[in-house]
Amino acid sequence: MRRVSNADIARILAEIGQYLAMQSEAFKPRAYEKAAAAISELDHEVSEMYARGKLKALEEIPSVGASIAEKIEELIRTGKSEYHRELAKKTPVDLGTLSRIEGLGPKSIKKLYDELGVRNMKELERAARAGKISKLEGFGKKSEDNILKSIESLKRWGNRFALDLALQESRVIAERLRSLPGVERVVVAGSLRRRKETIGDIDVLVVAKEAGRVMDFFVHAPDAVRVYAHGETKSAIKLSSGLDVDLRVVPEESFGAALNYFTGSKEHNVALRQIALRKGYKLNEYGLYKGKKQIAGRIEEELYRALGMDYIEPEMREDMGEIQLAQKHQLPELVGYRDLMGDLQVQTNWTDGSHSIEAMARAAAEAGLSYIAITDHTKRLAMTGGLDEKRVLAQISEIDRVNKKLRGKIRVLKGSECDILKDGTLDLSDSVLAKLDVVGASVHSHFNLSRADQTKRISRAMENPHADILFHPTGRIINRRSAYDADMDELIRVAKKTGTVMEIDALPDRLDLKDEHVRKCVEAGVKLTIDSDAHSPQHFHVLEYGIAQARRGFATRGDVINAWPIEKMQTFLK
Ligand code: DGT
Ligand code: CA
Ligand code: CA
Ligand code: ZN
Question: Nearest CA to 109 among 127, 94, 125?
Fold first, then answer.
């Protein structure tokens, strides 16, 4: 029997939630959705927890009660869920794909199936192009256009995976390989090591005594659903999540060269190889050679040194100028994965977060942070219960109370994720904004303005003397929604002029700013903040992805204001 992964369990539970929502069930959909979210954030494998502690262990998972625990048990024991199967029979649609279309929730997916027989993306596109969707009650021309746009953008993104999913999967695989006797080294290479925002496939390198045994073990991985290749030095499988994994066993003396080669990027490799040639050497995945003699290759550092340059961190290896900087010994010292001291975007149950201010503050302290800003939504975002001026003032008093209680543990700053209205003004009065420590301004509406209007609107918001940070500046959601049309170079100029900080929202489906924008900010001297956008206590770990994005944009600690002590950070704000 193949072991069910956490990702599988989370997916099935989330789908049950969606099917139940189609039946207009009241509370159950949310319960399944929450359980699915909790499971996808666990550090341990649920099937192992079950093997040790049976149903009791399952019920200890946050948001998992007795009835959901039984569904999970069935999944672990049989690989299937009868409940899921029965629900799916009623509305046999490709939920995984259809729910990636922006604006399509369970109810509308059901309606499209009931009325037009739409089961998958192809049928959805056909119905939209034929103008059938706009005629349905509750849809209209605008939603039909949005569906077509969303299908286009999904096609454009192609079959690439989110960084967090790929990173988690790769860590499980690496851990399993490390547990094998005779395995000396396991490293994840490829775009994952470079922390690209989306990942095509996972590349793993191993140094081991008996390659054959490692390969056997690998192709029989519990969540392998397909074996593409099973060789002595290279094997490849597909995981149940849809991700492909390449595994290569390499000789110890070539490990650095292989790691360098398979980390890429391809463009970086090509540039290195040319430098090697110019020096009269040959560079390949086995080493750096002068004639037949290997002069470097055991470790990467040695390779770069022999080529006359400083070691280049993987996140920079895109042949975007890093090689020239390394030759001149002028590489920036990148912000480190342990450098963040604070987090300037955190939501609570005052709006759409799940926990209290105090619970979020305690979780942040637990995650090693020494300050956070509470930035709940404002009134225009009505669906989140956005705060009006009166509620913001009430929240300020509550934060004072929490600060007294948690003195010495963490500092909580008063903030807001304040909506930018259509005309570029902010959603709270200046007198209330003035009482806050940190104001993040963000766009949550009117995504379709013209480029000129959108740029003007956001610039105007940044010109507000209270707007400290522009939150998620492009608004893109990876694999779902393109950035709104605005002139980023102009926004960076306005940020510089007004002293506005640009945010890297670390949520793995946002990672907004993009790496190239980070680079432009760094070059322009515009400061950055890396925020979790946490909506629950388990979310602070996503900061890792934001840091990766900052490093891909060559940011140093000096560029990132929440890598600074609180006093210095606060003096910098407007
Ligand atoms: P991905 O998987 O699309 O997210 O991106 P990568 O960079 O992981 O690409 P992948 O998996 O095709 O190959 C892993 C690394 O192997 C790549 O970063 C560089 C190296 N590599 C692959 N093909 C070539 C090639 O044709 N020439 C050179 N120089 N390097 C290559
Ligand atoms: Ca790859
Ligand atoms: Ca690959
Ligand atoms: Zn937001």
Answer: 94
Domains contained in the chain, number: 4
Distances (CA, A) of 132 to 107, 118, 136: 17, 11, 7
470 and 524: one domain?
A: yes
Boundary of a domain, candidates 221, 249, 277: 249
Pocket test for ligand 1, best of 199, 269, 270, 285 (most atoms within 8 A of CB): 269
Terminal-to-terminal C-alpha distance of the chain = 60
472 and 353 in a common domain: yes
Structure tokens at 181: 């006797």
Cis bond leading into 513, ω under 30°?
Answer: yes
The ligand 1 site (C-beta within 6 Å) comprises: 190-191, 196, 199-201, 203, 261-262, 264-266, 269-270
Question: Which residue minimizes the CA distance to atom 30 of ligand 1?
Answer: 266
Residue 1 lies in a domain: no
Give CA–CA dist 107/113, Å, rounded. Answer: 10
Q: What is the CATH number of the domain that holds 426?
A: 3.20.20.140
pLDDT, averaged per 10 consecutive residues of the chain (574 residues), comes to 77 94 90 89 84 94 94 94 95 87 89 95 94 92 90 76 93 95 96 96 96 95 88 91 92 96 97 97 97 96 97 98 98 98 97 95 98 97 91 98 97 98 97 97 94 98 98 90 92 98 96 97 98 95 97 98 98 94
Query: What range defines the domain where residue 236 resides?
Result: 161-249
State the pLDDT at residue 149.
86
Q: Which residues contact 103 (CB under 8 A, 6 or more apart)?
A: 143, 146, 147, 150
Q: Which of 304, 327, 350 is the last residue of a domain?
A: 327
Residue 337 domain-assigned (yes or no): no
Does residue 522 sit within a domain? yes
The reported pLDDT for the residue numbered 181 is 93
Residues around ligand 3, an ion, CB closer than 5 A: 201, 203, 246
User: What pLDDT does 253 receive?
Assistant: 95
Closest CA to 561 of 415, 353, 344, 404: 344
CA of 353, nearest ligand number: 4
Residue 572 to residue 558: CA distance in whole angstroms: 12
Name the residue with tokens 């994720």.
417
Query: Which residues are in the CB-under-5-Å shell of ion ligand 2?
Result: 190-191, 201, 203
CA 546 – ligand 1 centroid, Å: 23
At residue 1, the pLDDT reads 43
332 located within any domain: no
Cα distances (Å, whole numbers) of residue 463 to 39, 419, 421, 493: 42, 14, 14, 12
pLDDT of amino acid 99: 85
User: What per-residue confidence (pLDDT) applies to 466?
Assistant: 97
Measured in Å, residue 273 CA sits from the centre of ligand 1 at 14
Record the pTM: 0.81
Query: For residue 516, how far is its CA from the centre of ligand 3 (angstroms)?
Result: 24
- The CATH number linked to 138 is 1.10.150.110
Half-sphere exposure of 130 (CA within 13 A, CB side): 10
- Indicate which residue's Cα is closest to atom 8 of ligand 1: 190
